[in-house]
Design brief:
About 30% of the residues lie in helices and about 25% in strands. By secondary structure, the protein is of the alpha/beta class. The strands form four sheets. The chain has an eight-stranded parallel barrel, surrounded by six helices. Strands 17-16-21-13-14-20-18 form a seven-stranded antiparallel sheet. The protein has a two-stranded antiparallel sheet with strand order 8-9.
Length: about 425
């Protein structure tokens, strides 16, 4: 199998710890933003100081940090945006994601040299549109998730030096490219301003006019969650996607946990490297299938779909509404490692619960797996052997003995 150009792997960062986890597990770049302008109003702990720290960390590793300014803005947002862009200019992120022409004009007036990426919210779906946005100064276009690979390949062929980015994993919206009005309509929280309540995941009813009683909508034998899309997963399609020549592959999930990021980013890092290694098609196909099976079994999701990129497949909606139950639970993350004779002590921040009788698995960059002996668990302060530890607020720490020096930001899971 011939070697292919390796695309950038772009991952989400919902706070500084998630950013560090993303970088550790193989992301080439991380995207993040402040709550007011980034389509993530609630689950977003970033401050300007954190962004500056994150940028320094990324650059120390030869990686990049992008800032999202991709709200569909109203006049009230633009006045505050100028101050924000001035602050960003002083920090110097590697690019800004923009969807709204008003935001674009504001950025150009304050920071004309900024590198611009077109957000998927702008709905770029054809080569003529791509040429238009390139003339506006955009160096990269994040195409709509509604496009097929054939359409993406055609746009890339026409794009010239303009880079093309596509989504390969994460939640899908029920509305076109995420431009949804349901959340605003029902409870006054606008998805287009980063405050979506995800009404596409709700169960719906029919209520006759003038009556209090309602009927649950009966779609078919599957259930009633009419708008609830499965999650996008294109691991097994990486050879075809990379062969199209796209420049960047994007993972969705700024609201997701460090455990989710470690698993998904690690799996795609391993998959991309394998596809671009020149190894045989049979070996590549086998390992990509294994990676997808790992995410299917060991990560919570809504079921997986290949979305619009590969049409004419099984249904994209999850009509049952529930998450497939994983038999594995996130239970810890490695903070540091210290050599002790011929072995190593891993300092672990406990999440959820750790029992000395647990079957533990560690996930290290890039999706390297091994088992750990939970019976070696000790209190981090006293060194005493303990039989259980509980995460609570995420401050509990323990030591676990390992034969290998697993790096910081590796994560642990336990078999339930």
């Amino acid at each position: 199998m011939p070697k292919l150009k390796k695309p950038e792997l772009l991952a989400p960062g919902g706070n500084l710890e998630k950013l560090k986890t993303a970088l550790a597990h193989g992301a080439d770049a991380v995207y993040c933003g402040l709550p007011d302008f980034s389509l993530r109003t609630r689950v977003n702990d970033f401050s300007l100081a954190d962004i500056k720290k994150g940028l320094l960390l990324a650059h120390q590793e030869g990686k990049k940090l992008y800032i999202t300014l991709n709200i569909i803005a109203r006049d009230g947002h633009l006045a505050g945006l100028k101050k924000h862009v001035r602050q960003l200019r002083s920090i110097g992120p590697d690019a800004l994601f923009i969807a709204d022409p008003g935001v674009l004009e504001t950025v150009k007036s304050v920071w004309p040299e900024a590198r611009l990426s077109l957000s998927t919210q702008a709905n770029c779906t054809n080569a003529a549109s791509a040429r238009f946005w390139a003339k506006q100064g955009f160096k990269r276009l994040i195409l709509s998730r509604e496009l097929s690979l054939k359409e993406i390949t055609a746009i890339k062929a026409e794009a010239g030096k303009t880079e093309i980015e596509v989504f390969v994993h994460g939640a899908l919206c029920s509305s076109y490219s995420g431009r949804c009005f349901l959340s605003d309509y029902y409870i006054g929280r606008s998805a287009n301003l980063g405050d979506c309540a995800q009404p596409c995941r709700w169960e719906y009813e029919i209520k006759p006019a003038g009556h209090d009683k309602s009927l649950i909508i009966g779609e078919d034998s599957h259930g009633t969650y009419l708008l609830n899309s499965k999650d996008l997963c294109l691991l097994e399609r990486l050879p075809e996607i990379i062969a199209s020549g796209v420049d960047a592959l994007k993972i969705e999930g700024r609201a997701k946990s460090v455990y989710y990021l470690a698993n998904v980013i690690g799996a795609y890092r391993r998959g991309i490297d394998l596809v671009c290694s020149g190894k045989s098609k049979a070996l590549v196909k086998k390992e990509l299938a294994w990676l997808k099976a790992e995410l299917l079994e060991k990560l919570n999701h809504r079921g997986y779909t290949e979305g619009f990129m590969f049409p004419n497949q099984a249904v994209m909606q999850n009509y049952e509404g529930n998450f497939p139950s994983s038999p594995w639970e996130f239970c810890g993350q490695v903070l540091s490692v210290k050599r002790v004779g011929d072995a190593y002590d891993l300092k672990i921040r406990v999440h959820n619960t750790l029992l000395a009788t647990d079957k533990l698995e560690i996930i290290a960059p890039a999706y390297q797996l091994d088992s750990l002996d939970a019976s070696t668990m000790r209190d981090v302060k006293t060194g005493a052997v303990i039989s259980e530890a509980h995460g609570g607020g995420g401050e509990r720490q323990v030591l676990i003995r390992s034969k290998q020096a697993w790096p910081a930001y590796s994560v642990l899971r336990r078999r339930l």
